[in-house]
Write a structure and sequence with these properties.
50% of the residues lie in helices and 12% in strands. By secondary structure, the protein is mainly α. It folds into two domains: 77 residues, Orthogonal Bundle (Arc Repressor Mutant, subunit A); 115 residues, Winged helix-like DNA-binding domain superfamily/Winged helix DNA-binding domain (Arc Repressor Mutant, subunit A, Orthogonal Bundle), CATH 1.10.10.10. The strands form two sheets. A three-stranded antiparallel sheet has the order 3-5-4. It has a two-stranded antiparallel sheet with strand order 1-2. The two termini are 37 Å apart. InterPro entries: ScpB_csome_segregation (IPR005234), WH-like_DNA-bd_sf (IPR036388), WH_DNA-bd_sf (IPR036390). Keywords: Cell cycle, Cell division, Chromosome partition, Cytoplasm.
């Protein structure tokens, strides 16, 4: 293992959160002038080096971090995992945001068919799984929400393309209230923006870029 790989390995072990190759290069530039290409090469080599070991180097949403091998995670759960239970409303809101981001609270409510309490979104913001992604350029300029790299990391996703398909979600029962709400809303809205969201949902919850 060369000096660049050793430096990248040490930086990631000490990091409090996942890091992008650019962030690593910037951090390590103060300690030897490493280039981004060197860091990316080192990340690939380290990922291969740790493959099959108890600790693995993985990429989630363009950010790299070390994690316990999936088949050994159960050994650490009693000590390190803190159960995080979401309400049904929060789970549905998180799913809608993940599949349709960025979306506003009004768009989430249009898909769910019921009002969404502010506290529901606050819970998701506090968890670090969603973020405020700006404001919609429409009257009132409502806040729009999107998922975060922490969401991808928690659910073991490389990107939103790895989200389960609509049939898998239906099998879990997650989409039942959403489907019912959409049937009631189809053709019942005078808001073109809401209609567009409903039509997207009716076509299937497919990940968007």
């Amino acid at each position: 293992m060369d000096d660049v790989s050793r430096a990248v390995e040490a930086a990631l072990f000490a990091a409090s959160q996942p890091m992008t190759p650019q962030a690593l290069a910037t951090h390590l530039a103060h300690h030897g002038g490493m280039e981004g290409a060197d860091v990316r090469r080192a990340l690939r080599e380290l990922s291969a080096h740790y493959e099959g070991r108890g600790v693995q180097l993985v990429e989630r949403g363009g950010r790299w971090h070390f994690q316990t091998a999936p088949d050994l995670a159960h050994l650490l759960r009693p000590v390190h995992e803190e159960p995080r239970k979401l309400s049904r409303a929060a789970t549905e809101a998180l799913a809608i945001i993940a599949y349709h981001e960025p979306v506003s609270r009004a768009e989430i409510e249009a898909i769910r068919g019921v009002q969404t309490a502010k506290g529901t979104l606050d819970v998701l913001l506090e968890s670090g799984w969603i973020r405020m992604a700006g404001r919609r350029e429409v009257p009132g300029r409502p806040v729009i929400y999107a998922t975060t790299p922490a969401f991808l990391a928690h659910f073991g996703l490389n990107s939103r393309r790895d989200l389960p398909g609509i049939e898998e979600l239906r099998a879990t029962g997650l989409l039942d209230p959403v489907d019912t709400a959409m049937e009631a809303l189809m053709g019942a809205s005078d808001d073109p923006q809401v209609d567009q969201v409903i039509r997207q949902s009716a076509d299937g919850l497919a990940p968007e870029e």
